[in-house]
Amino acid sequence: MLRIQFITIAVNILFVLYISRLIIKGKLREEYAIVWVICTLFLLLFSFWTDGLELLRKLTGVVVAANLVFTGFIFAILVYLLHLSVVASKLHNDNKKLGQEISLLKEQFNKHLEEKKS
Amino acid sequence: MPGKVLIVIPCYNEEASLPLLLPELLSTILPNGYELKAAIINDCSKDKTVAVAKKYNVTVLDLPVNLGIGGAVQTGIRYARDNNFDLAIQLDGDGQHPPKELSKLIRYHDETGANVVIGSRFLEKEGFQSSFARRLGIQYFHWLNRILTGQAIYDSTSGFRLFDRKAIELAAASYPDEYPEPESLVVFSKAGLKVAEVAVVMAARQGGQSSIRSFGSLYYCIKVTLAMFFSFIRKS
Asked: Which residue among B59, B60, B74 places its CB closest to the CB of A100?
């Protein structure tokens, strides 16, 4: 096995462990962890199967294997960023509803308090 | 039977202009026996807007986070829906919309039965007319609105507008939160509501800052254009 293989495999395992730790501690929700786990599995696969990239390169007709890696990962990152924007939009809407609800409830509550006093 | 009107006043740092606006507003007598109630929606102001507003006989809705003008207006609209108001009229807290012009909107609504009545600066060239660049932008939105809604609204960015029960119901369910004015018109006309315009005289703002400032105006145009387009193609 090559030295670089050892390094990538070790880094991968550390990454998986870190993600697991985040999930266990409740800092990362499982649905957002999926994409990171898949990425790591993907990296792990190609760390062991060194001919795999060459095979994919031939299948897709890309001249330099590194370009295939860059293209693939940049695309995956863009999709993930879009996903995060969707999540942010949903949070924005939820926040708006909550804020409005709180202000309306606060008003009702104050009205009741005043009615009780008088 | 005389109806109830809620004046929805979205406020962000308006402690200076509220003492000028509220006494005049609360002493305004509305036509056709309408009863006037006012709701101040404090959009998480950094000044004493809430304390100032509480000195007057108004409902104060205090938002815990800053939602932007649309989110604040929608809070007032939801209050109007939940408390069974017949009409809701948005009036900006900065004193741009004189309370004496309210009766024009109400009369026009009662005469024509329009679901949404917009107080327009441009039907008659009177009062505060805003800067050239801003009028250019407004002209552009007039043109875009005409294409998307088929209705000729001249002052589509005007925040001085009346909602009837149908419009209240619709806006309470969905109202855009950032720069809502032109976009909401697309939503209203898609839902088959009748949008009309009536000439009013506006004043220059007495305090506070416009939500649309110069460096952001390009962003404003792009954002609103996109929002209007997507509201247009969205299934209602």
From this structure: B74
Question: What token pair was written down for A72?
Answer: 């693939």
CB B105, CB B198: distance < 8 Å = yes
> Pick from A96, A104, A106: which is nearest to B71 by CB?
A96
ipTM greater than 0.90? no
Q: Domains, chain B, ranges and CATH?
A: 4-233 (3.90.550.10)
pLDDT tens for B120-142 read: 887 666 566 667 777 787 788 88
- Chain A nearest CA to B130, separation (Å): 31
CB-CB neighbors (< 8 A) of A95 in chain B: 65
Q: How far does the CA of residue B122 sit from the closest CA of chain A (Å)?
A: 33
Q: What pLDDT shows up at residue B214?
A: 59
**Residues paired with B59 in a beta bridge:** B39
8-state DSSP, A61: T
**Pairing between strand B35-42 and B59-62?**
parallel
* Cα–Cα dist A33/B49, whole Å: 44
Q: Tell me how far apart the alpha carbons of residues B24 and B42 are, in angstroms, rounded to a whole number.
A: 19
